């Protein structure tokens, strides 16, 4: 088959089904380790990896980014609940804030899915690339906004949730890179900001994935065994291995120098973002 890279077509042999599943499983291993190490959902690893692998399965260039993002959100929908419960057991979730944010997060995530459906694949790829680089800059600088304001009212939290949900769904992440800075800026203690952000990943991922399923339900160019823009074999393999590896990453986080690890991961995200920005002409 042919895979579109840059402005040319290159001949590539499609991998066997078992090889493809192995690639998906290894993607889940990397996503799980990184989630445990850095408290990220792994979306910025899953989306670029899927964008490379899915064309080998015959996914059309016009929908490969939508498939990658939709599948990433589906995986996060499966893993976000365990993360939320883990933070809840430590008293880190502000349920009052989650209740106020959740309607906006859900509405924004669905809207983001349909915006992604409407965008050309090249535009969506560049949005993901820019998102990866911005997250990398935040991690490298270890930027933490100063607390300047109190938590807004219900309308303000709904609006903030809408923006966070839409942007997260557009790049296939659980929203931690946006929710934690917002809550910290609004004077929420960092432990509660992180825990509440993990809980916010549930409505973002569930409603975002549902939006990608609905938007892509009858679109041509999708692989076999897909539900809308969610590739089911990739979802299953990545979800299982990422759940298994996240505790390993969490243990490593306590044994390795966190600052050096964050900067190394930031460097990886810059590389990933740059490749996405220049990958298609």
Question: How would you characterize the overall build of this protein?
Answer:
The protein contains ten helices and four strands, in the order E-E-H-H-H-H-H-H-H-H-E-E-H-H. It has helices at residues 17-38, 43-53, 64-89, 95-118, 121-141, 154-171, 176-185, 190-215, 232-253, 258-278, and strands spanning 2-5, 8-11, 226-227, 230-231. 51% of the residues are buried. Strand 1 and strand 2 (8-11) form a beta hairpin. Helix 1 runs antiparallel to helix 2 (43-53) and helix 4 packs parallel to helix 8.
Secondary-structure element sequence? EEHHHHHHHHEEHH
Q: What portion of residues belong to β-strands?
A: under 5%
Question: How many domain modules?
Answer: 1
Largest sheet strand order: 1-2
Biggest beta sheet attributes: 2 strands, antiparallel
The pLDDT mean sits at 84
Low-confidence stretches: 1-12
Shape: globular
Classify the helix fraction into a percent range.
over 70%
Report the radius of gyration as a whole number of Å. 18 Å
Number of strands: 4
* N-to-C span: 20 Å
Helix and strand content put the structural class at: mainly alpha
Number of helices, counting only DSSP H or I runs of 4 residues or more: 10
What attributes characterize this protein structure?
281 residues, mainly alpha, two-stranded antiparallel ribbon, 10 helices, 4 strands, globular, disordered N terminus
């Amino acid at each position: 088959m042919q895979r579109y890279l840059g402005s040319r077509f290159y001949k590539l042999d499609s991998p066997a089904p078992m090889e493809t599943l192995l690639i998906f499983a290894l993607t889940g291993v990397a996503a799980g380790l990184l989630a445990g190490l850095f408290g990220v959902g792994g979306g910025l690893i899953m989306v670029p990896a899927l964008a490379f692998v899915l064309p080998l399965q015959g996914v059309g260039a016009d929908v490969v980014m939508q498939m990658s993002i939709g599948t990433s959100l589906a995986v996060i929908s499966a893993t976000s609940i365990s993360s939320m419960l883990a933070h809840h057991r430590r008293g880190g979730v502000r349920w009052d804030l989650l209740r106020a944010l959740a309607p906006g997060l859900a509405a924004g995530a669905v809207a983001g899915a349909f915006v992604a459906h409407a965008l050309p694949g090249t535009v969506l790829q560049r949005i993901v690339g820019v998102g990866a680089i911005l997250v990398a800059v935040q991690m490298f600088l270890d930027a933490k906004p100063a607390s300047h304001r109190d938590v807004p009212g219900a309308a303000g939290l709904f609006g903030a949730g809408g923006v966070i949900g839409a942007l997260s769904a557009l790049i296939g992440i659980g929203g931690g890179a946006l929710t934690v800075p917002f809550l910290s800026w609004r004077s929420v203690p960092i432990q509660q900001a992180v825990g509440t952000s993990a809980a916010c990943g549930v409505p973002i991922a569930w409603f975002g994935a549902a939006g990608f399923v609905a938007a892509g339900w009858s679109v041509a160019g999708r692989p076999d065994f897909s539900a809308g823009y969610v590739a089911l074999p990739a979802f299953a393999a990545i979800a299982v291995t990422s759940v298994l590896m996240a505790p390993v990453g969490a243990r490593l986080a306590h044994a390795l120098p966190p600052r050096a690890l964050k900067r190394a991961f930031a460097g990886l995200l810059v590389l990933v973002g740059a490749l996405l920005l220049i990958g298609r002409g």
